[in-house]
Write a structure and sequence with these properties.
- This protein has 291 residues and is an alpha/beta fold.
- The protein has one domain: P-loop containing nucleotide triphosphate hydrolases (Rossmann fold), CATH 3.40.50.
- The protein is 34% helix and 16% strand.
- The longest helix has 16 residues.
- It starts with a strand and ends in a 6-residue tail after the last helix.
- Bound molecules: adenosine-5'-diphosphate and magnesium ion.
- Magnesium ion binds next to α1 and β5.
């Protein structure tokens, strides 16, 4: 199974989520779990968990220039703490993007997909922020499910809404995951016209453990992130498809001029206009979600 994770704005915690999911993936029937760092902005896992850059994406890209069997992917992975494996990307954005371009232009993207389809294998592909033309797009398009991670405030939602319609068509199982405080989940679903597949709290202490920095003390909120990501892992592992992620015919996003929101037929009004991120309306602020 190939699960792609991406964002459209900022740094909402895609890599931390990939680690949380690979650690918490239901163990039944799973023989191998892999985080594939296919983020063109560069990798974080090697630095965070004290791993070398090679073997990793660089060595896999070089190997994929010759015909290879899918199992070759494992030769370029390393163990993460906790037993799962990681295909690490180099940290520099320019290098990572070049390597990723090589990988998808050769058979590398297909290899990642092929290895994920082997029995008992789950691959979490961290596609990072997926701008138009991202070299991670071919991998995201091959995924069985795509999780779009977004902050829950007006500016995050504005960026997400602008491209959500496009991304929703990439995979059979797209889903929107909200992070942290901001607009209420029901309000986001109503305004964007899509169901969410979950919401995880802003929880720096728990996130620290996911980024290789165990917190000094367990804090009350730390269990919230673990509980929510465990539930998300179970939902993604289940064969039942999530609900359709199809934008409303009249998509409205708080603070975004309607003509900037891409409609289901793919159209937007011509001409770029600056996005404004207004303060939350007081009515909405009263309904903010809390963990
Ligand atoms: N749920 C969360 N709550 C609080 N902080 C988080 C959360 N997820 C990630 N972080 C923190 O945000 C920063 C960016 O996380 P990262 O996973 O690298 O984001 P991305 O991959 O989207 O760029 C890290 O310092 C991480 O510890
Ligand atoms: Mg990341």
């Amino acid at each position: 199974m190939l699960i792609a994770l991406c964002s459209l704005h900022g740094s909402p915690g895609v890599t931390a989520l990939a680690v949380a999911l690979v650690w918490q993936w239901p163990k039944a029937d799973v023989v191998a779990r892999l985080v594939a760092e296919v983020d063109p902005a560069g990798g974080d896992l090697a630095m965070r968990f004290g791993l070398p850059i090679t073997p990793g994406l660089v060595s896999l890209a070089a190997a994929s220039r010759r015909p290879q069997k899918p199992a070759v992917v494992w030769e370029h992975t390393q163990f993460l703490p906790g037993g799962a494996r990681a295909l690490v990307a180099p940290p520099g954005g320019t290098h990572a993007r070049a390597v990723l371009c090589t990988l998808v232009a050769a058979q590398g993207g297909a290899l990642v997909q092929a290895v994920s389809q082997e029995p008992g294998v789950v691959v979490l592909a961290d596609c990072g922020r997926i701008d138009p033309g991202s070299p991670a797009e071919p991998i995201a398009r091959r995924a069985d499910a795509l999780v779009v991670v977004t902050g829950s405030r007006a500016d995050d939602l504005a960026h997400t809404a602008a491209r959500l319609g496009d991304l929703a068509r990439w995979t059979p199982r797209p889903g929107l995951l909200l992070v942290g405080d901001g607009y209420a989940t029901a309000e986001v679903e109503r305004e964007l016209g899509v169901p969410t597949i979950g919401r995880i709290p802003h929880d720096p202490a728990a996130a620290a453990a996911l980024t290789g920095h165990p917190p000094r003390e367990r804090r009350r909120g730390a269990r919230g992130l673990a509980r929510q990501t465990a539930a998300l892992a179970r939902a993604l592992a289940a064969p039942t498809p999530a609900g359709p992620l199809v934008p409303n015919t009249e998509v409205a996003v708080p603070g975004v001029p309607p003509q900037l929101v891409r409609q289901p037929d793919g159209t937007v009004a011509p001409g770029p206009q600056p996005l404004r991120a207004p303060p939350l309306p007081s009515a909405a602020a009263g309904k903010e979600w809390r963990p």
